[in-house]
């Protein structure tokens, strides 16, 4: 299909007229784009056709890309209408807020991951310290005998490593070690919080992608140089 055969609401001029000011100009408040083209999904980013052509793409790709962009502009308009985003400043504010919320949740999950790892590590060392304590006491009573150490070297090394770990965290006479029971309760609470944060994170990511994509498409259509915040793409899970 050639892009210059598009008519009505699929023409670039028609879409520009309707998106101008992000206000709908049709009398019924909607655009007559076929539902099969718009209701099945949200808009994708417009293709930078000029950049692609400079990379060596052919005329066939150019025709396809123009058609793709026209359809994505139409889908963008439908999305803006459905969300009531008929003002660019509102779109800008919502996309920025969605990005900030996404980043906030991402940081929160990373913080919880670090806290969970630290909790688990402390539990491991407490258990190790407890299991090897009797052997280490006997080692001291033996006057740090080389023969005793050679026979129980693994337990002695583990016990000393656990003691150093506690010292590095500041545990000692003025700061007692927490109990395993309290650490497990704390771990369970943080794990539940992380699960909830992940749920909110997935929702926030979906919302942010929609808003950032819609704003980026409008920016490109009207050559607005200010770009929305970039989405964070590193995996957590």
Give a written overview of the molecule.
The chain is mainly α. It has 2 domains: 3-86, no CATH class; 94-221. The chain is 68% helix and 0% strand. The protein contains 8 helices and no strands.
What's a quick, concise take on this entry?
The chain is mainly alpha-helical.
N-to-C SSE series? HHHHHHHH
| Residue fraction in strands | under 5%
Number of strands: 0
**Tally of DSSP helical segments:** 8
Task: Indicate the low-confidence ranges by residue numbers.
Answer: 1-8, 21-40, 227-237
Radius of gyration: 30 Å
* Straight-line N-to-C gap: 42 Å
Shape verdict: elongated
Fraction in helix = 55-70%
The SS-based structural class is mainly alpha
Main β-sheet, in a few words?
none
The average pLDDT value, as a whole number, equals: 83
Q: Give the count of structural domains.
A: 2
Characteristic key phrases:
237 residues, mainly alpha, 8 helices, elongated, single chain
Secondary structure elements and pairings:
Blueprint: H1 12-19, H2 35-38, H3 49-54, H4 59-83, H5 88-141, H6 146-151, H7 153-168, H8 180-221
Helix pairs in contact: 1-4, 4-8, 5-7, 5-8
